[in-house]
């Protein structure tokens, strides 16, 4: 009986020691299972991706000019199939996730200013999304543009798919030469009239206000020869007194 109790006590002690020595394995077990579940979830998300058409501005016909107003570069994931219009090109992106669009520009003092959120949800085939940038350049010359389209896992930074970026080499033209003569006068007049219309709200435009603007511009454009000719003649009375 005493021997049986000794054996039972020793067996219990041995079991407790084994459980204590194996506690490290018990701690490491759950993170391994969580990692496996995470990897499986990523793989399933990638399998759910599908291809959709992307319509974007063709930078080669953007007509970039130095020191002029910015040009608009637009990327659209439309609803259904569409044909690119003039000045547009088409590509493909992996949708069914959160899509990120990045437009990078370098060289010639070029600047690509985003006007929309970088990442937007395109979770189903009925979803649409649009990205817009303003592209401007300070100097003429050759610049580089690259459009990167990335599919993310939910709202994290985990990349599900990313295709090679679309790249272009674009010539920035010199700014247009300043106009002179009748063309410059007409543009100046039109700008002044337009400013007057906008200042009045475009609702009840005063004809007298527009006429005053036109008269002011005409007076500024008239040659000064007539005024000089009338001012150079001496009064007749002075000649008679000198005689």
Describe what this molecule looks like in 3D.
The chain is 38% helix and 30% strand. It has helices at residues 2-21, 23-47, 182-199, 207-221, 225-232, 236-242; strands spanning 50-57, 71-77, 88-95, 97-106, 111-114, 119-122, 129-136, 141-152, 159-162, 166-172. Residues 225-243 have low confidence and may be disordered. β8 and β9 form a beta hairpin. The protein is α+β, with helices and mostly antiparallel strands and 243 residues long. α3 (182-199) packs antiparallel against α4.
Q: Key terms for this structure?
A:
disordered C terminus; 5-stranded antiparallel β-sheet; 243 residues; 6 helices; single chain; alpha+beta
Beta percentage is 25-35%
Distance between the termini: 165 Å
The radius of gyration over CA amounts to 38 Å
Largest sheet: 5 strands, antiparallel
**Number of helical regions:** 6
How many strand elements? Answer: 10
Label the overall shape: elongated
Q: What order do the SSEs take from the amino end to the carboxyl end, as H and E?
A: HHEEEEEEEEEEHHHH
């Amino acid at each position: 009986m005493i021997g049986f109790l000794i054996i039972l006590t020793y067996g219990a002690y041995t079991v407790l020691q084994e459980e204590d020595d194996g506690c490290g394995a018990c701690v490491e077990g759950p993170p391994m299972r969580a990692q496996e579940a995470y990897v499986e979830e990523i793989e399933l998300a990638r399998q759910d991706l599908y291809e959709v058409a992307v319509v974007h501005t063709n930078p080669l016909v953007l007509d970039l000019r130095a020191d002029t107003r910015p040009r608009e570069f637009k990327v659209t994931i439309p609803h259904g199939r569409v044909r690119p219009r003039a000045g547009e090109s088409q590509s493909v992106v992996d949708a069914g996730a959160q899509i990120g669009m990045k437009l990078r520009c370098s060289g010639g003092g070029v600047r690509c200013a985003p006007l929309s959120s970088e990442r937007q949800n395109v979770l189903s085939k009925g979803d649409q999304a649009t990205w817009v940038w303003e592209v401007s350049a300070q100097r003429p010359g050759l610049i580089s543009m690259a459009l990167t389209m990335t599919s993310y896992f939910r709202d994290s930074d985990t990349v599900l798919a990313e295709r090679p970026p679309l790249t272009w080499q674009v010539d920035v033209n010199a700014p247009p030469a300043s106009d002179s003569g009748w063309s410059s006068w007409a543009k100046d007049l039109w700008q002044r009239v337009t400013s007057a219309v906008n200042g009045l709200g475009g609702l009840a435009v005063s004809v007298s206000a527009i006429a005053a603007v036109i008269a002011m511009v005409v007076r500024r454009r008239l040659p000064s020869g007539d005024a000089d000719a009338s001012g150079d003649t001496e009064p007749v009375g002075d000649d008679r007194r000198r005689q």
